[in-house]
Amino acid sequence: AADAAALIGLPKGSTIGAAEDRGIKVPEGLELARLKEFKTFVQQGQEVIGELDALVAKTPEAIGRSGRVATLVGGLQAQAQNFARLAGIRVDASLDPKDYADTFRGLGITDARIQGNVIALAFPLAVSAQGAGGGGRLSDKDVELQIRRIGAQAQDPVAFRAVLADVQRSLTTSFERMLETATGAPRQQPTRIQIEFVRDPKTGQLVPK
After folding, report:
1. Cα distance between residue 124 and residue 205, in whole Å
2. What confidence tens digit (pLDDT) does each residue in 20-65 have?
3. Backbone φ/ψ region at 138: left (φ over 0), alpha (ψ -120 to 50), beta
4. Is 27 exposed, middle or buried (0-12, 13-18, 19+ CB in 10 A)?
5. Rounded to a whole number, what is the largest CA-CA distance in the chain?
6. Are 126 and 97 in contact (CB under 8 A)?
7. pLDDT grade, residue 193 (50/70/90)?
8. Could you tell me the CA-to-CA distances from 197 to 43, 51, 109, 209 in Å, in that order?
9. Higher pLDDT, 26 or 72
10. Which of 34, 119, 170, 187 is least surrounded by CB atoms within 10 angstroms?
11. pLDDT band at residue 147, thresholds of 50, 70 and 90?
């Protein structure tokens, strides 16, 4: 009960009964487990994107050349695959850049390393959108939609950092949507979770506020 209360953002000392009296459903069982896993996935994603942002800010050419970028986005992709399994999302989408050749050609992205990094970022976004919607099937079209969203700016470091900030907001919004669906609480109620980041003046990295 305490885990559920903390997860849905109830003020410290609030009781589950009080929440239910206000019309807020308290998740339990499998639903609670999925919410906790999704929150962990989102928080890990925020941390990875924060490190990516700091890396690109320091070394603009890192998008296509840095092995660290590939490691970060590859780790995030693996986290998304793990969450998809836990959430019961059927993943039928390809992660092979060759299967999105026309899309990358239209975006003007010919560098295989950048293509791989874009897909590794697009996949978690597609998974988070499906998770917020309650599961279902993930197809090539879902990933392609996110590739177009990210890839259009992938070769411009300044624009790419703006995309990373947008990705952070999207991950947070996806968790909020999932939480609202589970609790039945509208956005203006205090169950809304805020995962906000600020830039550390010393390191330039985005860190939890």
Report:
1. 21
2. 555 566 666 667 777 778 888 888 888 888 888 888 888 877 776 7
3. beta
4. buried
5. 57
6. no
7. very low
8. 11, 12, 30, 5
9. 72
10. 187
11. very high
